[in-house]
Design brief:
Layout (H helix, E strand, L loop, with lengths): L6 E4 L6 H10 L1 E4 L6 H8 L5 E5 L6 H5 L6 E5 L8 H7 L2 E3 L6 H17 L1 H9 L5 H4 L9 E5 L3 H12 L3 E5 L10 E2 L3 H7 L2 E4 L13 H7 L4 E4 L8 H9 L5 E4 L18 E3 L8 H21 L9
Parallel strand pairs: 1-2, 1-3, 3-4, 4-5, 6-7, 6-9, 7-8, 9-10, 10-11, 11-12
Helix pairs in contact: 5-8, 9-10
Bound molecules: (2R)-2,3-dihydroxypropanoic acid.
(2R)-2,3-dihydroxypropanoic acid binds next to loops.
Length: about 325
């Protein structure tokens, strides 16, 4: 007997296994990445799906949207939407729900962990002790964080959460956005270059996409300078990764803490050899609490769209 549950196409497995289970319980789910021949599956069955679930990291390419002639709604796990093909989705007339708000604190915590680690050398210290070493002289000295200047590129929800943490470390905070944030207590810098020149620590929380691609380039890195640290928890595309590798290798900046990369899952090979870079596999939102809250919003967006034609939270293209 045919199921009466709505059919949902999952683009791939979710970062939280329980969400796969929740979706399978509520809907008639098929996972595209698990099909033996995804292209053929789409050609044969694409017309049967009105609803699709994906993640900000996996995105959604035009070739998939184009193969789903009846697609009405996409529920995306994540706050970024640069990897979802906007033009294809608008052409199709499909609406998109996403999960902002619930991950701000965890992403800001990760920015802070990367900032502290790159300045104070915690990962390097851990490797040092595990190698059986102890000498403080051989380990060397690191850089103070408290009381320094914190620059934030992208003063949105996550940038504001990073700024709040800076206050606890007695840091002066400045930021750059396309325009000043009304009511912000922080110093506004007219350009990213000026912000980098001003900052000891430059934290990137700006959205990815064509508008911000490679804005952190050679010039910005030189403005940050040999005492400066770069932290990126936004999108790898915002930073010219080859320029960053060169700046780290030559000591034109002091260090970097990176959760995101230009070509995930393949960070620039030379980054892997650098002692002054701390690397994480795009896991800033990856805590039990936040992933569960994101999963709940993915489910809520889907359920509300099916029931009312409007998701709880919709992407503001
Ligand atoms: C997000 O939610 O956009 C995270 O960066 C995961 O991709």
């Amino acid at each position: 007997m045919a199921s009466s549950r709505p059919r949902v196409l999952q683009y791939g497995k979710m970062p939280l296994p329980q969400l796969d289970a929740d979706l399978a319980q509520a809907y008639e789910v098929q996972i595209l990445s698990e099909q033996a021949d995804p292209g053929r599956f789409l050609a044969e069955q694409g017309a049967q799906f009105e609803y699709l679930v994906t993640t900000a990291a996996m995105g959604l390419p035009a070739r998939v949207v184009d193969a789903l002639p009846n697609l009405k709604f996409v529920s995306s796990f994540g706050v970024g939407f640069d990897a979802l093909d906007k033009d294809a989705l608008l052409r199709r007339g499909a609406r998109v729900g996403y999960t902002p708000g619930v991950l701000d604190d965890c992403v800001a915590d990760m920015a802070w962990a990367l900032l502290l680690d790159s300045a104070r050398g915690l990962s390097a210290a851990d490797r040092f002790v595990r190698r059986g070493e102890w000498s403080q002289r051989r380990f060397g000295i690191t850089t103070r964080v408290s009381g320094k200047r914190l620059g934030i590129f992208g003063m949105g929800r996550i940038g504001s959460a990073v700024a709040r943490r800076g206050a606890g470390f007695d840091m002066e905070v400045a930021y750059h956005n396309r325009r000043p944030v009304e009511g912000s207590p922080h110093l506004y810098q007219e350009s990213l270059l000026e912000l980098a020149r001003w900052s000891d620590f430059l934290v990137i929380t700006a959205a990815g996409g064509e508008n911000t691609r490679h804005l952190v380039n050679d010039e910005v890195l030189d403005a940050l300078g040999p005492q400066g640290f770069l932290v990126n928890v936004a999108r790898g595309s915002v930073v010219d990764e080859a320029a960053l590798v060169e700046a780290l290798q030559s000591g034109r900046i002091a260090g970097a803490g990176l959760d995101v990369f230009e070509d995930e899952p393949r960070p620039h090979a030379d980054l892997l050899a650098l002692e002054n870079a701390v690397l994480a596999p795009h896991v800033a939102s990856g805590t039990h609490e936040t992933r569960r809250a994101m999963a709940d919003l993915v489910l809520e967006n889907l359920q509300q769209f099916i029931a009312t034609g409007r998701p709880a939270v919709e992407v503001p293209w």
